[in-house]
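hi support,

uploading two proteins for the ticket. first:
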Amino acid sequence: MENAYTSENMSVIADVDTTTASDIQTQPISWLWEPYIPIGTITNLIGDGGEGKSFFACALAAAISRGNMLPGMVSPFPASDVIIQNAENPWPMVIKPRLEMLGADCSKIHRINDGDKHLTLADNRIEAAIIKHNAKLVVIDPIQSHLSEKFSMNRAESIRPVFTHLERVAERHHCAILLVGHINKGRGKAQHRGLGSVDIVNSVPSVLYLGKVEGYDKDTRVVAHGKSNFSELGVSQSFRLNKADGFSWLGECEATPDDIMNYNSAKAREDKGKVDEAMDFLTDLLESESASATEAIELADEMGISKRTLERARAEMGVKATREDGHWVWSM
């Protein structure tokens, strides 16, 4: 086969930048939390909303800020600075109180002020903040709140360049980046349950799943290791989360990522059943005449239908709410 390059464009070959394997210095893998969160790359934390992902991220940040031992580690990671970028919870009322309750050294935990300009995953301010504080952990929570308008979570061509950029930032500064994401409402194996394209999971070397599991009490959560390119999968770790006691590690367990996702699928089906029941209730109540919202809520409560479920059913049915004589009235 004739060489595509002629004497006229041989300069392309001369200018191409390459590295020979013998010139590359091998390095051991470093861990923020072995074997779950490697240093110098991205880890994805996936779970349903309201299950404690942000609290868990704060617990990690608190431990790293103090140099405290994490489960399964032989020695703690040295006390280091952390950046938390949380778009769903206010710092004064939620994040700061959590960090204080968890015993964090708050002088080592920072956020990027993005009130004037939306912070995206490709924003250079992330790298600038890492350099400024020599941060060893960056939490971006959740992924979908830190996307540009042009970014699509469902398209590989959007995901790969941004994740490659973040990974290089992490590698340059020997830092771990934790991306927090929600699950979709589908069914199937855990690797296909992250919100957006499966390429999000495929693009990162380590993936953790967090949530409740059937057979555990309501305050217990499990972190299960679903993917690792650098080591064998770590054993699942459980922790307790409630208002009275806050956060506490419980120890190793046998739950799997699929156990977490199956629980969420069952919960979604259960919730759907409750909404269907509430929709039947509203149909019977409003079929022939309107009813006051107060009366509807009280009657539903007597039937074991919560106000939240009733509101979801009302929204799905398009039940109208109008103000009459100072009271809200619902009608079909």
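and the second one:
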Amino acid sequence: MIKRLFVKSFPHEDITDVWNRCHPHLQPLAEARVPTAQPNAAFDVVAHVRLAGSVWFEMARISYDPTTGRYAWPRSEREAALKNRFDLMDTPVDAVDARLWSTEPTMINIEPTTRCNFNCWYCIGRHMKQDDIKLENFAAMLDNFPKLKTIALVGEGEPLMHKQFFTMAKMAKERQIRVIIISNGSTFSKSVIKQLCESEVAYVAISIDSFDPSTFASSRLDGDLNKVWRGIHKLREYRDAHGYRFPKIALKGTLFSHTLGQLPDIVEVAKKNGVEIFESFQPLNPMKSYVRIYPKEQVNQLASVSDVAKAIAHDSVLAQQTLQPFAEFCREEGIDFFPKVRSNPLRNNCNETYLYSLLSGDVTPCCQIKTPISDKWNVFNHSVEDVMADPEYENVRFNLWNGIFPSYCEGCWKTR
């Protein structure tokens, strides 16, 4: 007999026992927040459901009641899903599959260093332990990730300040693994430029916050914009003159209330100096973990974050007509930064398709989480396959894919 649970006077099929039998570790986090739901109110999650032992219905909306911990398939949802299978209308659900997030990464973003020769006031890296990844740990990560195709040697520091950066790039190249980086562009000496080309680093994105040198220096403290432009120009000139295809040179950055209209000018100057690709721009990060490090005199910038984001969205359309879009570059080069994934029909969610690791080897849910969560998620000590199969890791990904956000995500755009 089908169990019935009445919510708002509509009959629901209680599938709690089936859910817990199929994957008891996948549960909404008790301390998490669902942006579209009131506290303690029922909300939906998504799962595939099976009837009659073999008939699967995908992306079913399942109601979860946090006060009782029970799951139900609303009768109205069942009727909509089974509109062409009336013979199954009263057949109970016998299996559930809620593992709908991306589970086959071929890319890792790992921090090579937290050290930097700039002192940007909004950079959380300046408040982290200043250190470099050890070469033996980098090698262990490569061994533990046999399906790896692309490494983003990117973190809260300047990657080219790591004395063994090009050794790591060579180790990746020997395994046919692509390397991409984000740099502040200030360290492009003749030697560095030559090694970037010879090592076949595929992609270098340069962070530029303004086209005006004094404004640039006000956010990128210790930064000399004219030196950065000269370095980019020399890199492009050397690469082309010596017949190298890589690295491709890209643009990204952060805009503020006083620079929200500067993106078109930044793109124009960047193109003149040899930049080819437009990656992305972002407003000041409003996440709680970042806000705590901002100087008091800069906190008022947060009031303009939405306006800055709108200006970026508008101006990025033209930017991607002037420079090659990053997504297009990734498709051409077979870099799985934008693989096809299942979209969640309910709400904003988070489905990172690559792994992010601190220089300690600790994997976190995204590049904005800087505190290790579990010692079982360390890619120096565990295979990537074991990390992704860890029940706690799976549950975090289940929650994020369903737009159920842990407290450490507070402030992130996706939680709004």
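thanks. also noticed: The chain has 13 helices and 15 strands.
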